[in-house]
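User: Structure please.
Assistant: Input sequence and predicted structure:
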Amino acid sequence: MAPSKENKMAETPMGKLVLTMSLPLMISMLVQAFYNVVDSLFVSHIPSTVLIQNAGDKAVQALTLAFPIQMLMIACNTGTGVGINAVLSRYLGRRDREKASFVAGNALFLAACIYLIFMLFGLFGTKAFFLTQTSDPVTLDYGISYLRICTTCAFGNMGFFAFEKILQATGNTTLSMAAQLSGAVTNILLDPVFIFGYFGLPAMGVAGAAVATVIGQCVSMTVGCIVHYRLNHEVDNGLRYVRPNRKIIGEIYKVGVPAIAMQSLTSVMAYGMNLILGSVSEIYVTAFGIYYKLQNFIFMPAYGLNNALVPITGFSYGARRKDRIAQSLRFGLLDVSVIMAAGILAILLFAPAIVSIFAVSPEIQDICVYALRIICLGYLFSGANIVLQGFYQALGNGIYSLIVSLLRMTVVLMPLAWILAAVLHLPDLVWIAFPIAELAAFLAALVMLKVIYRKRVRPLEEIRRPIP
């Protein structure tokens, strides 16, 4: 096959490149955040009955307790995807089409393996997981039915992540966005249909939210598959590329394992905070769940920017373009600061109105508003940390990213939250642990940035090679 035309990551002005590649990802991830919120929003309106009081509160709590496993699924997808992005973009930068094609093919094999793991968990581990967090029979019933469907039917989720990362790494972020949007819109439209039982269908409640989710994921996978095989010309396709290649998988997980560990810390943090807050009151757990999903409206665009910067920086590193590596970091930090500043302003002005759309008790709404306003104080540090973590991953140093995540999610955050809630019995102050942890991680990230720049970027020769 003839070599592809010049890759746009080679010479496009960096400011324009970051914007054009990240904007579709930001939009698609905003929609992703929206339909995650919609799940909780719709189930909060599940009506109470004589047998089940405060059904909406319990439904939101069930989704909050299920959230750590969902985040673990995302961690495995995202971490593996980071490895795929970094390795694939690096081979493209070196103009090695054959190895790039093996990376893309092995991405599909790894997606199947990850699905198998979570399918087994869904069949045999869901009930035990929920019993560690609650003994309420209604919350247990809601949560088990929801999570079991989301895990055993996650093949659409895993398949889409593989196609998404291949498209992103080859610079086709608009096609990736189209696949993401198709599933998100499907999920949003089907949520009320299955939860409340429209068009002659039975009302499935919380389980209906899970059904809508997996159908949306299957739609995204289907669209991603079609656009990759028909429109993505940066890599070759064929069964021989899908066969597991030990060397390629090793390269992917050299970057991917630290990234999985890093992303898994979100799951650990969510589970730990559920236990810490649950020791105070279940209403704090429900408020935390609503807060975290609302926060994603701000953080998801930052992660979309990060997902664009990883292949951009990885391509420049593979091409030994020291100037463009520096530019990618500079524009990334600038753009993420704008995103986070806008998020802080929106929270300070509109938090009560936003939280009020959830049909939960006034006490839960008040706690959620207070949490948003306290935690947003650290958002500028959060944004910088996200960009710097992606920068480290693109240069092949996932360990630095892991260290930053450890500081953000566990080492500083959880001990401080536990002291405030369980030792000092000041649950209303537990939220201050979040901005403190982000500040500590940012200071450490600056030190590591200086080290990695000296060791990996400065030694690169200034070479401008033509890209066929």
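The longest helix spans residues 55-93.
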